[in-house]
Design a protein that fits this description.
The structure holds two protein chains of two kinds. By secondary structure, chain A is mainly alpha-helical. Chain A has one domain. Chain A has helices at residues 23-42, 46-56, 75-80, 82-93, and one strand at residues 62-65. The longest helix of chain A is centred in the middle third of the chain and has 20 residues, at 23-42. Chain A is globular, with a radius of gyration of 15 Å. Chain B has two domains: 12-195, NADP-dependent oxidoreductase domain (TIM Barrel, Alpha-Beta Barrel); 201-238, no CATH class. Chain B is 35% helix and 13% strand. Chain B has helices at 2-8, 55-58, 75-85, 115-129, 148-160, 174-178, 187-190, 213-227, 229-237; strands at residues 16-18, 25-27, 29-32, 64-67, 95-99, 103-104, 110-111, 136-139, 167-169. Chain B is globular. The chains are: A mainly alpha, B alpha/beta.
Chain lengths: 94, 238
């Protein structure tokens, strides 16, 4: 998704406040900054940071949704990068 | 990402968790299939993206799939069945986690947790999933018009028939869950699986205990960036 992405037809995002100005742009900015953080400190992308964070809240299972097969590829980085994400996060916090 | 997958595949050791009261040990990342069956959440589906051709790849780290008859009114189940059903044994320990009965079509979605609906819907789901059983079968939503005892007894029947291996609920409050009769011994077990929509939570949510300062720092950065786009940058770069 980009700032100029339009959600047409029966796309639910077209009426979801989270995808309307000004919040949509704010979310995109936040995600971009977190992605940079994840790359700089953890050598992973924001999607890995997000799932790692969610699992560490104590829930049992996180659902990974996708519409296209290639949206599932990044899931491998969560498992492969578990130690990196944990140790990297320690360094951020310290 | 492809490169990451190839170079680190040998290191992949997916996290897993036991579901209390069952014999299931499932991956902590599960596949959600809502979007696969929906026409209203994104691009028009094509033959390419309606078939999870990357199955062998993601199945290295995921052995739990969440689907429901209401997801595309059967389309998601058909996709899952196509990808996993007949070859379930080939995907090591693959489990279907079905947010099951209680939804119906007729152009719109409504709750229906009657015994008749459940008994009919299970066979439709098994056919679309191309399997003879579902590992965890959840009542998708509470139906205030149907006594929970009726719903529970129907689920128990499916359990006794071997069509489902565990009973659970979804979108129920803890109090409602506790109202399930003793006959549904495994009901609470599967209810530990809950999806989380972090974007609907605030920074003050119980989701974020105060003692978890390390996570809190990342969370605060996100919150500030959302509230004031310029503030987040400063915080992250500090």
């Amino acid at each position: 998704m980009r700032a100029d992405t339009t959600f047409e037809g029966d796309d639910l995002r077209g009426s979801n406040p989270k995808f309307q100005p000004p919040r949509y742009g704010q979310y995109l900015t936040a995600v971009g900054q977190l992605d940079q953080l994840a790359q700089d400190f953890l050598h992973r992308r924001v999607i890995h940071l997000a799932v790692r964070w969610m699992l560490d809240q104590g829930i049992s299972v996180a659902l990974w949704g996708g519409r296209h097969p290639d949206q599932l590829e990044a899931v491998l980085g969560v498992a492969a990068g578990r130690s990196a994400l944990h140790s990297g996060r320690e360094s951020i916090a310290s | 990402m492809q490169q990451l997958a190839e170079t680190q595949m040998h290191e992949v050791e997916p996290e897993s968790v036991d579901i209390p009261g069952t014999q299931l040990r499932v991956s902590r990342v599960a596949l959600g299939t809502w979007a696969m069956g929906r026409l209203d959440v994104g691009a028009e589906p094509t033959s390419a993206n309606r078939s999870p051709q990357s199955g062998p790849l993601w199945s290295r780290v995921i052995n739990l799939i969440d689907t429901a008859p209401v997801y595309g009114f059967g389309v998601s189940e058909e996709i899952v069945g196509q990808a996993v059903g007949a070859g379930r044994s080939a995907l090591t320990g693959s489990h279907c986690h079905q947010s099951g009965p209680g939804m119906a079509r007729d152009g719109k979605v409504y709750r229906n947790a009657t015994r008749d609906r459940i008994m009919r819907e299970i066979d439709d789901s098994l056919r679309r999933l191309r399997t003879d059983h579902i590992d965890i079968y959840q009542v998708h939503w509470p139906d205030p018009l149907v006594p929970i005892e009726e719903t529970a007894e129907a689920m128990r029947t499916l359990y006794d028939q071997g069509k489902i291996r565990a009973i659970g609920v979804s979108n129920f409050s803890v109090r409602t869950d506790g109202a399930l009769p003793p006959g549904c011994a495994s009901a609470r077990a599967a209810a530990t699986l809950q999806s989380l929509r972090a974007s609907h939570r605030s920074a003050d949510s119980p989701l974020l205990p105060r003692e978890q300062h390390r996570d809190a720092r990342v969370w605060r950065a996100l919150s500030r960036a959302v509230e004031r786009p310029d503030a987040g940058r400063h915080h992250l770069r500090r």
